[in-house]
Design brief:
245 residues, mainly alpha, 2 domains, 11 helices, 0% strand
Length: 245
């Protein structure tokens, strides 16, 4: 049986299976990292008074590890709902930058697909998919598998952590440090040249300076936007015609 694009049904099925397998292969390291982080979040959320079912609903609706950790900490500290919403919005503002970078590889894609794809963008899936897109041989379906597989792993891990929280003392096993350790690991894997290292240093300077002088969490946005802008112009200057001999 021939399809409109000239491929047989069997070839299409084989191609779809290959994309699924390759997407799962790229996603499993993220899932391995998400499992201890999700457990940590679930435990902390349980200590803050959330049931496993509320934790699962939070992961489904939000699916943003850093924002969820912050929201749980603020809930535990008695913060208002408005303060939690505003803070998580500011922290997640970096998703605009990640989405803009991925949009280059998702031109002329239906809006329904983009909505589903955007829901699954996290720091980890962004790093994996951007690397694969740059290497070539990667498409939107493989990238979608990465996003949604990581999503399912995260939801399962946070719910499991909610149930396990009843048996784990507060602060045990260095759980409070889990998110920081994850971001440090992501940073190290992104430092693939002098421009990247310099951009990371600029980001740190922006973040620390803004944090010291301006109250609140706006330093996250300032560091992200400022460092991304500096990095963009550095890359453009470095690749300018005539600069390299």
């Amino acid at each position: 049986m021939e399809l409109r694009d000239g491929y047989s049904a069997q070839e299409t099925e084989t191609s779809g299976g290959k994309k699924l397998r390759e997407g799962l292969a790229a996603a499993w390291p993220i899932c391995l990292g998400y499992f201890p982080l999700g457990l940590a979040l679930g435990v902390l959320a349980q200590k803050a008074g959330l049931s496993p079912w509320w934790i699962g609903l939070m992961s489904i609706l939000v699916f943003a590890g850093s924002a969820q950790f912050i929201a749980v900490a603020m809930l535990d500290g008695g913060a208002s709902l408005a303060a939690i919403i505003l803070t998580t919005l500011v922290v997640n503002f970096r998703h605009f930058l990640m989405s803009s970078a991925l949009a280059v590889h998702l031109r002329k894609v239906p809006r329904g697909f983009l909505c589903l794809f955007a829901y699954g963008i996290t720091d980890e899936s962004f790093a994996v998919n951007m690397t694969r897109f740059r290497q070539g041989g990667w498409d939107r379906w493989r990238a979608l598998v990465v996003n949604q597989t990581a999503n399912l792993a995260w939801i399962a891990a946070t719910v499991a952590g909610g149930f396990a929280g009843a048996f784990i003392p507060r602060g045990a096993f260095g759980i409070d440090y889990a998110l920081t350790a994850m971001f440090l690991c992501l940073l190290v894997f992104q430092l693939q040249g002098r421009i990247y290292i310099f951009t990371a240093i600029i980001s740190a300077i922006f973040a620390v300076t803004w944090y010291v002088w301006v109250p609140g969490d706006s330093y996250v946005v300032v560091a992200s936007v400022g460092a991304a802008t500096v990095g963009f112009f550095l890359k453009r200057w470095h690749n300018a015609p005539g600069r390299r001999s």
